[in-house]
Design goal:
- This protein has a single domain, classed as Beta Barrel (Barwin-like endoglucanases), CATH 2.40.40.
- About 10% of the residues lie in helices and about 45% in strands.
- The protein is built from two helices and nine strands, in the order βββαββββαββ.
- It is globular.
- About 25% of the residues are buried.
- It catalyses: L-aspartate + H(+) = beta-alanine + CO2.
- Catalyzes the pyruvoyl-dependent decarboxylation of aspartate to produce beta-alanine.
Length: about 130
């Protein structure tokens, strides 16, 4: 059995732009992509904290250190500059891999700069057996 697990997320980033006339995607600062381990053209889910909308798109890289989080194409209708979003990437894992699985969480500051990275070694592994007794 394989399970779809959170691979990484960029938490509470601020949308910096929306470009309806672009072909589609989300542009993300290259430093944020690197910190989160998200690849160019990788599918991501975006959750808008301001309006509750969730949608999927793919990633294109923005200038490193720019703080850019730009929604392009149809996604530009789902958020406005200033909205806060969570950007999540997923990975398929075997049941044995899940036992030691922990995602990378990138926390950002108000300018979408990396504030802190909680890597797999910084988070507890998923307890598949339930709460400790």
């Amino acid at each position: 059995m394989h399970l779809k697990m959170l691979k990484s997320k960029i938490h509470r980033a601020t949308v910096t732009g929306a470009n309806l006339d672009y072909e589609g995607s989300i542009t993300i600062d290259g430093e944020l992509l690197e910190a989160a381990g998200i690849l160019v053209f990788e599918q991501v889910q975006v959750a808008n904290l301001n309006n509750g909308v969730r949608f999927e798109t793919y990633v294109i890289p923005g200038a490193r250190g720019s703080g850019v989080i730009n929604l392009n194409g149809a996604a530009a209708r789902l958020a406005v500059p200033g909205d806060q979003v969570i950007i999540m990437a997923y990975s398929w894992c075997s049941e044995s891999e899940v036992r030691e699985w922990a995602p990378v969480v990138v926390l950002v500051d108000a300018r979408n700069r990396v504030a802190k990275v909680l890597a797999a070694e910084g988070l507890p592994p998923l307890n598949m057996t339930g709460p400790e007794k």
